[in-house]
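Please fill in the sequence for the structure shown.

STRUCTURE ENCODING:
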């Protein structure tokens, strides 16, 4: 809520938020300072700052309250409107509900269930919507009441502050009156100030005119002087140019010579590099050969061990273990030696520390003449011998002797040697010390100690101690325990601290007095030990030992220096004190030059051409040596630099291979004997040579770059020397001698002859080799005429015709008088160029600005052909400015490139042709920018039916750029269109383009003219449905015929087979519509796959070739030994003679081959997303064909054509097929026999980066195809195997589609197969297959030939009844046999007698198999009995893979223990035998009984009696000989006469049977007359069969007459 604030609040805190803050501040100032304003405003009450602030705050709060009231009113009105709308909507919904309820009642009466379902669903939705609206109405009414309540409260607040509002309005009126009076007074004051200012301006103008008149006269005089100076400058300019040309010619000759030298150096370096590379190749080849040799030896050792029967792997492993153990033992020994060395070092360090402590505590001992004291080298040797049991090597002995010889020279050098030995032992390990280097270096030379202080002092001390007896005082033997305080640093101080003999001369004598002061805390003594060795020839010390000195006491020492050599000498004087040794440095320096100048940079500043000015520099020599100097403009090349370059080139020319061991030793000895100064020079030369080497390498790498670099450096030098050296000259003193501590002034003169900046680099050269040249840089600038143009070349850049371009022309004056200027303009350019003003005055020491206007007209090429090139558009106009009193005008040039501003269309008129009202037509036009400047363009005032792309017709054209503009026309009505497109440029030029089109209305209409497929993977498909409708409600043109008949339509087939339209053609009647299905299935093109296959083949061939080359090189390297150079040459030749690999042409790669599929998989793995667009035309006829001849094609008008656009994005498939047995996503099972089952596997791989969950579509449950395994989730890069089976049951072709689905695609696999009935025949038609009789434990075989005359392979199985797991073991046959009796020979079981060993007596090979198309298969049936029996039998059934029976054979056979057998007669025992031998089953019967049983034959003869006639009975017995026997057998009947008497006849009575054959014996019984019908005739006869043994059969004949036998 709005709350009014109290009047007494502080208004000043919110003064910043008030709108008239400036008025409030002025008001407060006036109230404080302006008392007159109060008197003039007597009629208006005075307004204070607080009152005004209060007024504005009240007005702001009242405005906020009014705004709040208006907001509440708007909210109230809006809520009321919403409530009214809800009332209307509820009323409409109630009316719709009543109508639906009435319709539901009507449909219930009509019993229309479909409509009832639809109406009830609508009624339900309507009731739900009505309920929502009622709830919204309740909510809105509550909100309305709330808004009305708030509005009432705000109204009360407004009425509450009505009195305050009137008060504020009155205060505002008074404030406005006060503000107007204040403004009037300000206006009056401003007018007075303006009059005063005008008077001042007039006075100033008068003074300025007088001043300009005076300056004009002065300027005239200066112009005359300038003209004179110009003539003088021109004279000197010619001489300067002539001299510059000569210098350039000389420098060019020098540059060529330097370049030639560099080229020669680069060539030599290149030859050296080639030689080094050749040597490196030889070493590499040798290393390879050695590796191959080792590997070959290892392989030969393995083969030898294997040949001897040893385990090569074990032997090699043991050998490696032995080597490893040896290596570890050597490492252990080395570690032991290293530890011993460390122990020795520690002992030596401890001894050294002990000695140093003793030396500090006691005075130096007296030297001994004997050799009782061991040197550190001997101590070290003894320790090593003690710690190591092995004797020392020769190298150790040499090192020991060397150290002994060095240490025995003087006892004073022992301390230095011990420290050097310790450092060497710390930095060198034992193995490094034992190894001998390849080249001898500094370590082989006699070591010379550097000239340091310790060595020389030690020698001096040694001499003094040998000459003087050691006298020790008891006062000096003070131990460290008695010292209460210790001093850090030396115990004595010298004054001066350094004994310096500066700037000495040879032959003179110099003396110095040195005071030594005891600065320690105790009484100390000072004893002179000696001086450095290098000082002994020049320095004489006069020092008397003072004895004990207390703290602060001092003594004197006199030093006399008599130099005899002009060389610097350094050393020190050594003293012995109670606290240790103390030394005073001595330094003797020769005379030197110390040269400097007061300034190395001289700037002459700006000077007019012709003037002369001089500057002076001071050269000072602060040293004591005089030298000669010379002032030069260039610095000569020093000898050191020449030496470095020569040595650099020398090092390049010397090959690496020529460096021998002797050279290295010589170089090492020379380096060891050099002095420190020479070593520094050598190091400097080495750095220079390294730089030269780097430069030469760069030159060798790129000769062109070296030439460019050389030329650029020479050009830079020429440009540096192009400045005129005559403008800056040297005074009279150019060279001379400067003495010690002397100064000389050098004069430099600057006299400019040409305007511009001049620079000169000078060098002060000295004859003293130790003094470096001093560079001095001189700079000056010459100024030209007193009046000049700041920018003499006015470049207007690129300009367009008929456009205004402006620039400023500024002239500068350096004179002290005003000058009149006149701007000249040539007549040819008066139409195009204008200068304002044409005349003006240039004030003294100031500038003048003129305004230049340039408007190039189209007639510029005609008006100013002399200045303007129409071909290139370049304009260059020389202009002049006439200056009063100046002979030469000021010249400046105006330059510009003038170009056209045209935009050009490649077509004058754009014809869209016939455009359907349902679609848009795109036409392209090319827009060219004819200008040299970028131009913005835009198509404006475009009709509603036109769209311009890209960027909606706006853009920028670069110079001379052509842009293709797409104009899209969409006809809204069927009429003729004529319109014009306007293209405006950035300078508001309009370029029209005429357009025309003809809008047509096709009779057929598509529901969608644009089909946008989603991202489709390769191998997947996307489908879109749309409708083609024939409606006659559209608009027609006069040319379009009106047809009430049907119309034909046809979609044009596309060359790309990625999509399919179904139906592609058809006929529609008026009012009908047809469903069109568009299927997009992206696939890879065969050409791309063949190219990828070609690339893969080429890559594989390259790999094989590289492997072959590598193998050949390895073989050559192994055969060649010591001929590295020949090998490298041959390798080069081999590299050059390698023929390029020819890839097979893509046409030779067949589609569907293995290479083709591998290439397809490779492309899918590297597939990149793409986007494709297709436009399909649908042609529509004008009607049906004529009824007279339906074969005649109807007319197809282009006005009726429809266009369908397809947008097809293609992405990489996440799932691909990687099996080789699938072609074009189709799995071919080929022809399969009906009933057989063929299984094939298909592998799919996940090539995406996410896991895929696979699912499959359902196959026909009654169809032949089936998926045998389940699908699972595939991780990225994994594969999954699909196991598919095909089992046809009918003779026809089958085809189904299996869809393997994942979240991102569906992979459709087409399954095809053909069922074929097998045509198999067997060589045996069926029935009984009798093997005859064989000898027991022998076998006989029979071959059955199965022939397949069909076109498919057929599988089969050979089943024996005895081996079937489901057979009943012949129980029914056994029962039938037992029930039927023995006399009925026709009853036989399926499975007869079997072998005792448990194996089947009959065997079949093969048991199962497959017969190829148009091929045959042999099935071998073998009979192999293991005991004698005549009841062997079985049943063989051959079944095909579809469970159909090809044939069934009853197998029979008999076995005998001899080579003869007798068959026939009646069975005397059960045909089914036990598998147990007779010996076990009947142990109580003797074996003879069983033999008798076998030799007994019963023959029953039954004669038939019918109709009074008797038919004789006939039987047969067969005598046979087994095939494996060597000879046949004979048989003979006994007592045939008795048989004949009873009516029996036997034919033949005897005979011979050959081996492997059999013979039948016919037995006939004819009843004799008088035979009784029921009488049985019986007789027993012996039949003798003689084979390998004699066998007698007892044949019993039983004969009777039967009336029941046929």
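FILLED IN BY: designer on duty
SEQUENCE:
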């Amino acid at each position: 809520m709005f709350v009014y604030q109290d009047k007494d609040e502080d208004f000043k805190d919110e003064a910043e938020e008030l709108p008239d803050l400036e008025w409030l501040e002025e008001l407060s100032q006036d109230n404080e300072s302006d008392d007159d304003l109060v008197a003039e405003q007597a009629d208006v009450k005075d307004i204070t700052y607080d009152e005004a602030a209060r007024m504005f705050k009240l007005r702001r709060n009242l405005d906020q309250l009014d705004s709040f009231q208006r907001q509440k009113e708007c909210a109230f009105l809006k809520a009321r409107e919403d409530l009214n709308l809800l009332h209307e909507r509820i009323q409409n919904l109630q009316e719709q509900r009543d109508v639906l309820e009435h319709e539901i009642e009507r449909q219930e009466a009509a019993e229309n269930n479909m409509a009832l379902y639809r109406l009830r669903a609508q009624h339900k939705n309507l009731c739900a919507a009505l309920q929502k609206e009622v709830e919204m109405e309740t909510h809105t009414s509550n909100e309305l009441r709330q808004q009305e309540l708030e509005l009432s409260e705000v109204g009360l607040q407004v009425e509450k502050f009505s009195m305050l509002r009137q008060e504020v309005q009155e205060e505002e009126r008074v404030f406005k009156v006060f503000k107007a009076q204040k403004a009037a007074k300000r206006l009056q004051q401003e007018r007075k100030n303006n009059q005063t200012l005008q008077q001042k301006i007039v006075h100033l103008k008068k003074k300025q005119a007088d001043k300009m008149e005076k300056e004009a006269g002065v300027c005239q005089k200066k112009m005359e002087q300038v003209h004179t100076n110009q003539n003088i400058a021109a004279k000197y300019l010619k001489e300067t140019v002539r001299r510059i040309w000569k210098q350039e010619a000389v420098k060019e000759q020098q540059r060529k010579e330097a370049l030639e030298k560099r080229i020669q150096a680069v060539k030599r370096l290149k030859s050296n590099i080639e030689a080094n590379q050749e040597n490196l190749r030889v070493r590499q080849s040798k290393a390879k050969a050695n590796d191959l040799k080792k590997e070959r030896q290892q392989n030969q050792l393995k083969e030898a061990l294997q040949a001897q029967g040893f385990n090569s792997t074990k032997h090699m492993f043991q050998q490696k273990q032995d080597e490893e153990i040896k290596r570890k033992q050597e490492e252990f020994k080395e570690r032991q030696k290293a530890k011993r060395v460390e122990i020795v070092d520690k002992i030596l360090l401890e001894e050294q520390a002990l000695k140093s402590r003793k030396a500090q505590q006691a005075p130096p001992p007296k030297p001994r003449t004997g050799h009782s004291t061991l040197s550190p080298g001997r101590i070290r040797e003894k320790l090593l011998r003690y710690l190591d049991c092995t004797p020392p090597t020769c190298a150790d002995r040499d090192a020991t002797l060397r150290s002994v010889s060095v240490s025995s020279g003087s006892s004073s050098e022992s301390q230095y040697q011990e420290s050097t030995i310790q450092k060497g032992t710390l930095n060198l390990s034992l193995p490094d010390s034992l190894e001998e280097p390849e080249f001898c270096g500094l370590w082989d030379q006699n070591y010379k100690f550097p000239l340091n202080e310790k060595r020389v002092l030690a020698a001096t001390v040694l001499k003094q101690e040998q000459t003087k007896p050691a006298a020790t005082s008891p006062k000096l033997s003070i131990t460290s325990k008695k010292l209460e305080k210790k001093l850090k640093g030396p115990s004595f101080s010298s004054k001066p601290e350094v004994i310096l003999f500066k700037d000495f001369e040879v032959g003179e004598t110099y003396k110095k007095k040195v005071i030594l002061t005891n600065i320690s805390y105790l009484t100390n003594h000072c004893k002179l030990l000696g001086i450095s060795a290098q000082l002994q020839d020049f320095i004489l010390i006069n020092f008397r030992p003072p004895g004990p000195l207390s703290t602060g006491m001092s003594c004197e020492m006199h030093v006399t220096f008599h130099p005899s050599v002009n060389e610097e000498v350094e050393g020190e004087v050594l003293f012995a004190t109670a606290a240790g040794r103390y030394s005073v440095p001595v330094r003797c320096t020769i005379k030197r030059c110390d040269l400097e100048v007061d300034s190395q940079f001289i700037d002459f500043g700006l000077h007019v051409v012709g003037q002369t000015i001089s500057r002076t520099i001071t050269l000072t020599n602060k040293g004591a040596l005089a030298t000669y100097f010379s002032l030069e403009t260039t610095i000569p090349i020093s000898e050191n630099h020449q030496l470095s370059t020569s040595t650099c080139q020398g090092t390049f020319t010397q090959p690496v291979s020529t460096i021998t061991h002797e050279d290295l030793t010589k170089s090492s000895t020379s380096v060891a004997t050099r002095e420190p100064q020479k070593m520094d020079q050598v190091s400097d030369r080495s750095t220079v040579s390294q730089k030269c080497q780097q430069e030469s390498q760069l030159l060798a790498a790129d000769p062109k770059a070296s030439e460019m670099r050389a030329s650029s450096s020479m050009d830079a030098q020429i440009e540096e020397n192009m400045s005129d050296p005559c403008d800056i000259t040297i005074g009279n003193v150019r060279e001379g001698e400067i003495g010690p501590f002397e100064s000389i002034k050098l004069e430099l003169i600057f006299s400019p002859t040409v305007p511009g900046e001049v620079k000169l680099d000078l060098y002060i050269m000295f004859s003293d080799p130790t003094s470096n040249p001093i560079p001095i840089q001189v700079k000056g600038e010459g100024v030209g005429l007193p009046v000049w143009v700041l920018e003499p070349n006015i470049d207007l850049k690129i300009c367009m015709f008929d456009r205004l371009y402006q620039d400023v022309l500024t002239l500068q004056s350096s004179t002290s008088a005003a000058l009149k200027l006149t701007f000249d303009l040539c007549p040819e350019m008066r139409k195009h160029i204008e200068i304002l003003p044409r005349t003006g005055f240039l004030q003294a020491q100031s500038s003048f600005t003129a305004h230049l206007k340039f408007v190039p007209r189209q007639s510029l090429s005609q008006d100013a052909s002399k200045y303007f090139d129409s071909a290139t558009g370049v304009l260059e106009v020389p202009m002049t400015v006439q200056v009063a009193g100046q002979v030469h005008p000021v010249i400046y040039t105006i330059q510009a490139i003038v170009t056209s501003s045209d935009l050009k269309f490649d077509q004058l008129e754009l014809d869209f042709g016939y455009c359907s009202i349902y679609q848009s037509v795109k036409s392209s036009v090319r827009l060219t920018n004819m200008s040299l400047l970028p131009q913005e363009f835009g198509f404006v005032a475009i009709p509603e039916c036109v769209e311009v792309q890209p960027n909606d017709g706006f853009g920028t054209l670069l110079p001379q750029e052509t842009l293709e503009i797409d104009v899209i026309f969409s006809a809204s009505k069927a009429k003729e269109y004529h319109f014009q497109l306007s293209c405006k440029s950035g300078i508001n030029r309009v370029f029209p383009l005429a357009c025309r089109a003809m809008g047509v209305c096709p009779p057929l209409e598509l529901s969608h003219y644009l089909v946008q497929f989603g991202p489709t993977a390769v191998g997947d498909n996307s489908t879109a449905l749309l409708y083609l409708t024939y409606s006659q409600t559209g608009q027609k043109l006069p040319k379009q015929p009106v047809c009430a008949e049907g119309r034909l339509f046809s979609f044009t087939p596309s060359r790309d087979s990625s999509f399919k339209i179904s139906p592609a053609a058809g006929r529609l009647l008026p009012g009908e519509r047809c469903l069109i299905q568009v299927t997009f299935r992206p696939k890879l093109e065969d050409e791309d796959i063949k190219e990828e296959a070609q690339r893969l083949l080429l890559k594989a061939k390259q790999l094989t070739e590289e492997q072959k080359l590598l193998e050949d090189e390895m073989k050559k390297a192994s055969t060649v030994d010591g001929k590295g150079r020949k090998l490298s040459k041959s390798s080069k030749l081999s590299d050059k003679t390698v023929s390029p690999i020819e890839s097979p042409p893509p046409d030779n790669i067949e589609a569907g081959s293995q290479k083709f599929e591998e290439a397809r998989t490779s492309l899918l793995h590297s597939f990149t997303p793409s986007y494709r667009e297709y436009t399909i035309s649908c042609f529509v006829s004008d009607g049906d064909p004529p009824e007279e001849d339906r074969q005649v094609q109807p007319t197809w008008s282009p006005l009726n054509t429809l266009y369908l656009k397809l947008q097809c994005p293609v992405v990489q498939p996440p799932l691909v097929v990687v099996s080789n047995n699938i072609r074009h996503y189709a799995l071919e099972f080929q022809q399969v026999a009906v009933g057989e089952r063929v299984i094939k596997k298909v592998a799919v791989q996940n090539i995406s980066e996410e896991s895929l969950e696979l699912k499959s579509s359902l196959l026909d449950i009654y169809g032949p195809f089936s998926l045998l395994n389940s699908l699972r989730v595939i991780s990225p890069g994994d594969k999954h195997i699909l196991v598919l089976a095909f089992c046809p049951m009918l003779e026809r072709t089958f085809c189904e589609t299996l869809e393997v689905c994942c979240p991102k695609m569906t992979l459709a696999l087409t399954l095809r197969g053909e069922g074929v009935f097998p045509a198999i025949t067997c060589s045996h038609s069926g029935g009984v297959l009798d093997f005859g009789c064989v000898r027991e434990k022998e076998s006989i075989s029979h071959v059955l030939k199965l022939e397949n005359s069909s076109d498919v392979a057929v599988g089969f199985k050979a089943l024996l009844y005895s081996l079937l797991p489901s057979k009943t073991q012949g129980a029914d046959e056994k029962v039938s046999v037992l029930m039927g009796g023995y006399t009925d020979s026709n009853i036989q079981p399926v499975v007869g007698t079997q072998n005792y060993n448990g194996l089947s007596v009959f065997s079949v090979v093969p048991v199962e198999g497959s017969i190829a198309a148009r091929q045959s298969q042999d099935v071998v049936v073998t009979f192999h009995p293991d005991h004698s029996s005549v009841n062997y039998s079985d049943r063989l059934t051959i079944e095909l893979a579809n469970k159909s029976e090809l044939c069934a054979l009853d197998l029979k056979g008999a076995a005998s223990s001899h080579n003869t057998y007798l068959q026939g007669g009646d069975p005397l025992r059960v045909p089914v035998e036990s598998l147990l031998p007779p010996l076990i089953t009947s142990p109580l019967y003797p074996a003879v009984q069983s033999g008798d049983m076998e030799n007994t034959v019963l023959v029953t003869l039954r004669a038939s009696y019918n109709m009074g006639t008797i038919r004789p009975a006939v039987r047969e017995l067969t005598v046979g000989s087994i095939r494996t026997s060597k000879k046949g057998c004979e048989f003979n009947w006994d007592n045939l006469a008795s048989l004949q008497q009873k009516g029996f006849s036997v034919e033949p009575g005897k005979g011979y049977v050959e081996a492997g054959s059999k013979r039948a014996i016919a037995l006939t019984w004819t009843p004799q007359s008088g035979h009784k019908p029921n009488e049985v005739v019986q007789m027993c006869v012996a039949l003798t069969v003689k084979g390998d043994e004699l066998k007698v059969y007892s044949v019993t004949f039983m004969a009777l007459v039967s009336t029941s036998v046929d």
